[in-house]
Design brief:
8-stranded mixed β-sheet
Amino acid sequence: MTTIGIIGSGNIGSNVARAAVDHGFEVVISNSRGAQSLDDLVKELGDAAKAGSVEEAISAGELVLVAIPLGSIGNLPVAAFEDKVVMDANNYYPQRDGRIAELDSNESTTSELLQRHLPHSHVVKAFNNIPAKDIPKDGLPAGEENRRALPIAGNDHASKIKVAEFLDVLGYDVLDLGPLSESWRVERDTPAYVKRTTLDELKELTQDVERVQQT
């Protein structure tokens, strides 16, 4: 059974955990406050979930979700992520994260910053443009007419396939935006951000989108 490692137990991390468990995955979830703080969540999730340290979640996960504030990614242990497929759910909120010059000037993307910090991992943008509460409830079987689509981006093709397969099991079509440098197309203040779309609608919204300065 595939195990999903989850770093961060906030809205996104906890809801990805719920969706994963509901679809037959095991999860190891961690946060900065320690495993005991996760007792209630793990009890809710049941036998397929357990709490652990950040390192334990990374080690256990065949896919590892990073769902922590952008300002905290520098604290992630670099060596532990070697060869891991890392799903990056981050968005840039200057009021929370502080000003980051490379993002303000559009010279980089949040996922490129994470990839630079974890150079021996394979970062794939995922789960950043869907409201967290929708993650466990909006999935539909393949072929359903109104199936929601989620975007991904990444520099490693094989890693994107693994993430796309995971999203498909959770009930979502997938649009590959290309490399991490294109992940801005679904970040904050873009037309596709937190908008429920089918695959065709998502393609349309991300094709001619204008990249604006971060505010």
